[in-house]
Amino acid sequence: MARGLFPRAWMSKSYYHFQVRLSHVRVKYLFLTWLAVFVGSWVIYVQYSSYTELCRGRECQNNICDQYRKGVIDGSACSSLCEKGSLYFGRCLSSKPNNQVYTGSWGDVDGVIKCQLNDVLHYELGEELEPRKESALFDKPTRGTSVEKFKEMVSSHLKAKVGEQANLSSLVSLILTVADGNKDGRVSLPEAKSAWALLQLNEVLLAVVLQDREHTPKLLGFCGDLYVVERVPYTPLYGLSLPWPLELWVPAGFRRSMDQWFTPSWPRKAKISIGLLELVEDVFHGPFGSFLMCDMRPGSFGYTDRHDLRLVDGRLVVPEEAFGSAMRLQRCREDGDCVYGVDCRTSCDRAEGHCTPRVSQPNLARACGALKDYLLRGAPAHLRDELEKQLYSCMALRGSAQHMEMEHSLILNNLKTLLWKQISHTKDS
Asked: How far apart are CA 87 and CA 75, in angstroms?
């Protein structure tokens, strides 16, 4: 009888332990489920909060259309945006609340809509491009201002931006042509107010200056300080856009290597790189002065279906004259205080306590630094050593060098020739 009770007791004990273990598994499962729901809810909440803070396109449209209906502003995109409803806001691309960026469609044309949300007329140099709030937006020119007086205003503003030039009057005429949104041969006061607001934005000035070049998106239209440019199909130049929670966990070194995996074939990369070198050439002593490209990150560039490079974010492309004037006023204690945007650096004159006006590295040196890993990965074996040598020579350029302009032209031409020889016989050319 004792033998019969023993197995029964053992089975009862085993069953009890199984139930306890099952209870622990259930508790653990419930805890993990709760944790997953909590973390997921938190991520969704943060993403939503971030989206609502960054993406304020409706507010931007309402502000612009309110000013248009009051007759304060006018432009080539106003009627489509505010009356016909043929200019649509699409996906939000904004990275800062005061700079609204959206994909958009305007009839049959795909574009990118950009809009400012600050009551501001003057944008000063600074890492965050924070505006100086001096006066209400769209308050200039005032009623009663003649066309000649407006020309003088534009000329004075451009002189401060790009410097005194023999062809400054040509640039003023170009601005007035763009300002005439309805192409009736005259610039009305609402059109002049829109043009004046847009002139404060470096990206718009660059689009006008380089409107005949192929590496900057075309300015399609405007209304107030909202403007539409053509859309570039492939952005960024290389790499992958990851959700921000993943960005926090991916090591920087691994991310740089991973970015190089998501690139076109090498001949196509060579063609895109030639486009960047040509853009550098366009802004270096161009017809209306020199510009500094102060953000060479891959997100600032994209390319078309034919692998032609396009600048997609020109907010940190600034006239060299304006850059030098602003840097002279910048107080500093060390060289690290003399930085604009991501890439434009000068040195600190410690005796004076101000930054020097001349950029340490020209655009070309910084462009070669951005292209080095991009071009060397997958490069043909017979080309790699010579390409690496030329890229490092390019990266060694200094803005203060005695014969910098001559070296700049020589290195630029050598690099373009080297790359073009490799692809001129291929279909990618």
From this structure: 13
At 408, is the secondary structure helix, strand, or coil? helix
* Cβ contacts of 164-170, under 8 Å, gap ≥ 24: 165/288, 165/289, 167/287, 167/288, 168/288, 170/288
| Interatomic CA distance for residues 66 and 324, integer angstroms | 38
- Give the angle subtended at the CA of 199 by the CAs of 198 and 201, to the nearest 5°: 70
> 310-314: long-range contacts (C-beta < 8 A, 24 or more apart)?
310/215, 310/216, 310/217, 310/232, 310/275, 311/215, 311/216, 311/217, 311/279, 312/112, 312/217, 312/232, 312/235, 313/203, 314/202, 314/203, 314/206, 314/207, 314/216
Could you give the CA distance from residue 296 to residue 368 in angstroms, rounded to a whole number?
10
* Dist. CA 237–CA 312, nearest whole Å: 10
| C-beta separation of 347 from 360 below 8 A | yes
Res 317 pLDDT > 70: yes
Distance CA 203, CA 216 (A): 10
User: What is the DSSP code (8-state) at residue 185?
Assistant: S
Residues 221, 206: Cα–Cα separation, whole Å: 15
Around Cβ 82, how many Cβ atoms within 10 Å? 18
Q: What is the pLDDT of residues 168-178, one digit of tens each?
A: 889 999 999 99
CB 291 within 8 A of CB 254: no
- The partner residues of 222 in beta bridges, in order of sequence, read 227
End-to-end CA distance of the chain: give it in Å, rounded.
95
For residue 105, what are the β-bridge partners? 88, 110
With tokens 């991973």, the residue in question is 258
Q: Is the pTM of this model over 0.85?
A: no
* Residue matched to tokens 């470096």: 202
Query: Looking up tokens 């500093």, which residue turns up?
Result: 332
User: What distance in Å separates the CA atoms of residue 297 and residue 236, rounded to the nearest whole number?
Assistant: 9
Q: In terms of DSSP bridges, do strands 226-230 and 291-293 run parallel, antiparallel, or are they unpaired? A: unpaired
Which helix (H) or strand (E) segment holds residue 123: the answer is strand 122-123
How far is the C-alpha of 164 from the C-alpha of 360, rounded, in Å? 23
pLDDT of 154 over the 60 cut: yes
- Token digits for 233? 């199909």
> Among 372, 374, 387, which residue's Cα sits nearest to residue 419?
387
pLDDT tens by residue, 200-252: 999 999 999 988 888 998 999 999 999 999 999 988 888 766 555 555 556 66
